[in-house]
Amino acid sequence: MNPYSPQLIDESRQGEALTKNKESLVDSDPNEVLLVSKRSLYIESYGCQMNFSDSEIVASILENEGFTLTQNPKTADIIFINTCSIRENAEQKARARLREFKSYTSRKPGAIIGVLGCMAERLKGKFLEEEKLVDMVVGPDAYRDLPRLLSEIDHGQKAMNVLLSREETYADISPLRFTSNGISAFVSIMRGCDNMCSFCVVPFTRGRERSRDPESIVREVEDLSRQGYKEVTLLGQNVDSYKYDLGESVNLDFADLLERVALVDPEIRVRFSTSHPKDITDKVLHTMARYENICKYIHLPVQSGNSRILEMMNRTYSREWYLSRISAIRRIMPECGISSDFISGFCSETESEHEDTLSLMESVKFDYAFMFKYSERPGTLAAKRYPDDIPEEIKARRLQEIIDLQRKHSFYHLKNQVGQVQKVLIEGRSKKSSLDYSGRNDRNAMVVFPSTQNLSPGMYAWVKIIDCTSATLLGLVQNEF
Asked: Which CATH code fits 11-161?
């Protein structure tokens, strides 16, 4: 998962509770779920998919200790915010939210506020010593220690554990899927990152790369199949570098794992995030092409279209290498959707180097992209080596040019799908009309179409695409023709 990528979670499903196994669940707001309990826990998550997945691990650990989840931070006994450190704006948003939480707990004696995740790992004791907004700071590898840390707080102490691990994968913990809609689920396959991209804090906040036991991954997907889930997304900072030692000099790589997961249940769609251009292999692409239930969609962050900037970013590939990987995808899976990430205004970027990014975009024509201005992060290699010397107004103007061009390309891809009949997994009602369903096709495009009595969320529908907006495909269920 590229660290500059924001969450790829559809906002419509962030707060939908899994009701199949929890009769006391009720409808909730984003990132929240309500149960009845003696001691209640509220968790709010920000950032990438991994943070949302981690929050489900935290909820599971504390549920086993007798805690239950609430949708109301004003009445919660414990408030956790799972944070992101990718950009300064993300950290400022978290601080503002913590100040709001502090106003709640000041009226509720004994209530606890804790910071989890990447921001906790980056700032460590500063939260406790300087900002005095929280009672607990817990890094992403220390969630098993939460019961002990809470006990320390109950005895009048502040608590912190930000130790990073070379082994922790939480493989034996079954997530409490309160961020899920009961149809799609995240499955973490690895943690940490060994890529030292110069702009990125992830190696410092999530530690070294380690892969999870493939048998535990398959068991988790099998369990999701039994529960009726229809889609899993395999998560990792860089899924393509997944590698597990099976002994006797035999390693299982990501293509092998992808095949094992696809074989669990042909009715479960398989997605993954995120790929790194230096690691995605033809073996992975051929595995995707071989299995119908592996979605033909790849998020392949490029960040810049200029080789000098890519070298400064320590991305370990050139413009030419990236385009060769795009060519391989197009050759092996001609209809595969491809998305990317872009950073405008990286250190010393010239106008012609910015133009190289635009020309790469014109060459590839990505389906979607996540686009940001460069934000210097303390402690990163870029912050130590390079001055942040591009004026904000130039960053903003270059970013807008990237955004405008990507909108054009996104619309181009949607228009090209008009007239096709596509298999769509129904996720729920459309945000704009309760008379319509919405769901995603194989290449991750949102499709909206009139609902019928014979269909419901969690089912597949064959939909003929008859039109599109700038961001959505519009269709009719094929059996109505």
From this structure: 3.40.50.2300
Residues sharing a CB contact under 8 Å with residue 30, sequence separation 6 or more, in sequence order? 11, 14, 15
Residues in a beta bridge with 368: 339
Fold classified for 184-416: pyruvate-formate lyase- activating enzyme (3.80.30)
DSSP structure class, residue 303 = B
Whole-model pTM over 0.85: yes
Produce one character per residue of 278-303: b if its CB has 16 or more CB atoms within 10 Å, e if not: ebbeeebbebbeeeebbbbbbbbbbb
Angle at 465 (CA atoms; ends 463, 471), nearest 5 degrees: 115
Q: CA–CA separation, 214 vs 235, rounded Å?
A: 13
Spans of the chain, pLDDT less than 50: 1-37, 480-481
Residue 184, C-beta contacts closer than 8 angstroms, at least 6 positions apart = 13, 229, 230, 231, 232, 233, 425, 427
In order, the DSSP letters of 97-159 are HHHHHHHHHTTSTT-EEEEEEHHHHHHTTHIIIII---SEEE-TT-GGGHHHHHHHHHTT--E
Instruction: Return the closest-CA partner of residue 37 out of 25, 27, 52, 28.
Output: 25
- Cα(298)–Cα(472) distance, integer angstroms: 19
CATH architecture of 421-480: Beta Barrel (2.40)
Instruction: Name, in order, each residue with C-beta under 8 angstroms of 454's C-beta and a sequence gap of 6 or more.
Output: none
According to DSSP, the residues that pair with 273 across neighbouring strands are 235
Quote the pLDDT of residue 479: 66
Q: What is the residue type of 406?
A: Q
pLDDT of residue 130: 67
CA distances from 124 to 102, 117, 160, 226, 230 (A): 19, 10, 8, 40, 39
Domain map (residue ranges) of the chain: 11-161, 184-416, 421-480
In whole angstroms, what is the distance from residue 349 CA to residue 124 CA?
Answer: 33
Distance of CA 164 to the CA centre of its chain: 21
Residue 250's pLDDT is what?
Answer: 85
Q: How many CB atoms lie within 10 A of CB 454?
A: 10
